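RETRY 2/3 - previous attempt timed out on the joint model. Re-submitting the same 542-residue input unchanged.
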Amino acid sequence: MSTEPQGTSAEPPMSERTPEDQVLRQLWRVVDPELGMNILRLGLVYDVEIQEGDVTVVMTLTTPGCPMARAITEGVHRVVSDLPWVTSTTVRLVWEPRWTPERIHR
Amino acid sequence: MAVTSVSSPRPAGAPLPVAPEAAEPPPFRLPGEHFAAALLWLGAGAGGLVLVAPDLAQGNLFEPRVLATTHAFTLGVITTSIFGALYQLFPVTMGATVKSVRLGHATFWTLQLGIVLLVAGFWLQRGWLEGAGWLALAVALGGLASNLVSQRRRATQGRIIGGYVAGAHAALGTAMFVAFARIGETLGWWHVDRLSVIASHYHLAALGFASLTVVGVGSRMLPMFLVAHGYPEWPLRWIGPVAGTGMAAFVTGQLGKLAPLVWTGALLMAAAAVLHLYLVFGYFRTRNRRRLDPGLAHMATAFCSLGIVVPAGIALLAWPGGFNPRGWAAYGLIGVLGWLVLMIVGVYYRILPFLTWLHVFGPRMGEPDLPTVADLTRPAWGWVSLGCMVSGVLVLAPAVALGAAPAARAGAVVYALGVGLVLAQAARVLALRRRA
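RETRY 2/3 succeeded.
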């Protein structure tokens, strides 16, 4: 699956998109302010699991000691929780596999 | 739903190991007051430099105002910045946080009291003020060591960085012990060889404390700033031991008047610096952030200064005419202003906007149209300040070495203009934070 949410001039309204696409669209909004790139393009998101209204985002950061860790994970939590059908959001931070610049979608 | 393919030797479906919780950094006020004080000292040091530049050009290395200005930079700017940065970085890089924020504030004020007393003692030629300042500095160093550096035992990661920070603080303690020998002489308690003591003190402080901290902390910060991957890491394991052995030999040789030991120490310290430059070259070579911003350019230029100061030091040691005061003054200027202060200014260009962004916009992450960290600064000011500071040192150091007092003062004025722009940029960024 592409990490870029599909957008056309004739986009369906938010409520008609799949839950997966809705979550991706929300994650697209979380931008690393240092690199000026959103976390999907950076390849930081490894997995998104959806069970009913429970969403788990498995992600990493560019470096284990990233001082932006809290802001980014809280941002992910906030944007996903904004979706009306989401009842709980979990952000799971992992260091394996380690992030490398090859993960950036150029 | 798999968003990206995760290649891993784990069985299918096995969960990825969760990252350990990062330790919480102390409130921004603690590192923030260090940064603010260091920037004020930068302004004071630049002003002092303009006044003492002609003295330096006359080779008056030990003129009281020269010593006062030197310590405004070394203690006021470099040490205060390092203490503040450690409070911020220790938790995120090592997973170990400060024991007591209140003790951290007390340590900060004791440090500032010590610097003020010491600088005033030098300027006014009052030995008892120097002694009182030294005492306050020793208490401040002990406060930081017990409050933060000792916490490395609890570190969950970054043990090599912790080793560098601990080694650097041991060197600072030794530098202070050596300085005490000099102050005791000023007070008439005993006699020491002034040149040997000052040479030992300078190298313990500049190389042992400040440079080893740059190596350790930089091993985490620089790859992060440059988005560097795949660089050789082996020099990091060698720089500390080689530099430590070199310093021990150099100081023993200086104080014991053993020339072969002085040379062994100097060559080992030079080797450690070359290893550091090789490590840093790897960071820059493998960086994914191709375009350097003003902060990174300040740091890159600082490393160039390190590349100049090492052969300059060896050449001065081999100088056929013996002690060359103007040459050593130029060496000290490049080491303090060109290498360490420029490095710290570069770090400020990165971390002040970063921390401001985190405070002002961090809670709004995910909202549309948020600025990036780079949007908070004016790059043009950064480039001009870099140009002024570098050209200032490039004029000042040769002018001092050649004994050209007017040119030395002109270089100091240009350097001070660069510092003025640094302060204006920092005030602008910090004002954003205050408005928020």
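Residues 43 and 102 of chain A are 9 Å apart (CA to CA). Closing ticket.
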